[in-house]
Amino acid sequence: MNRRVYLDHNASTPVHPEVVAEMVPYFGEVFGNPSSVHGFGRAAREAVDVARDRVAAFLRARPDEIVFTSGGTESDNFGVKGLAWARGRGHLITSKVEHHAVLRTCQALEAQGFSVSYLPVDETGMIDPDDVRRALRPDTIAISIMHANSEVGTIQPVRAIGAIARERGIPFHVDAVQTFGKVEIDVDAFHIDLLSFSGHKIYGPKGVAGLYIRKGTKMVSVQHGGEHERRRRAGTENVPGIVGLGKAAEVRGREMKDEAVRLTALRDRLWEGVRVRVPDVRLNGHPTERVPGTANISYKNVESESIVLGLDLKGIAVSAGSACTSGSVEPSYVLVAMGVPLEWAMGAVRSSLGRSTTAEDIDYVVESIEPIVRKLRAALPVGVA
Asked: Looking at domain 5-13+255-378, what is its CATH homologous superfamily?
């Protein structure tokens, strides 16, 4: 039987045992609606408040600046639309490599009469802060830049971009779904006004996320109904999920630094192993400014889906891109924006490591991938490889 190795943590993570244990009571005996004033409701409300405190502490924010949502996509929609609609019209700045939750939200806003500048990235996937400055207009109302890209892991210079936004008094939204719980985030030091994060990327449950909204930021709600979340996001709170997200944030605060060092070493071990054993490979993304556990490697003239399927037969889970775009026969829009040639972009495979990944896992992946790529290249027409 093959060894089983999961290297798709950027897509989703297994729920941490401590998180599961903390959530269990809220599926049974503590079942009240947190908006109810009786004891059952108050017990649920207390649990939500504890979770809010934990998330706020992790971000160095205030508890009343945290709004819980159903996922990173909702948080991004809320952040970008909430800023735009509160101002009625104007110009937004984002990048060409944002998650579709931001890109398609911006495209929807364009259809409503807003204008959007989509900034380029360099060959490492990095945005130049000077491009942000050059894109500013008198009617610029918001800037939305991700903290790190889910496909290549490049960490953007959000501190520098935030300083530009603060200098001009422009609200700054950051999609931090891929960095929350993996690298240090300080909303004050980075001059961030809104920040999206999600539970299932940090060993918490799916279906729960949040949006940090700096106190005083002018926003419009995108979901209407009751008085929940200080009238900012209507709908009965997902108490078990929120409890799990809060516990996951607490655990990451305890484990994150040591884990980052360990995963960086394993990530580099993977790249060095592949580079030595497999010809015609390249690392996509920034060589150092990258999320600790992410390695996006291109295999020239080989289709990524074929590699993914070959590795799956060996019990290894990797991705041909982000989970939201896997299955597409088109090259990654992120790699296209980075200027990666087609013969390399079509063979990009993302490995994203996590807390269960071991050196033995990495060595098994390296040993498995070389014969798969060799066989696929041998099947190519003469003169292609």
From this structure: Aspartate Aminotransferase, domain 1 (3.90.1150.10)
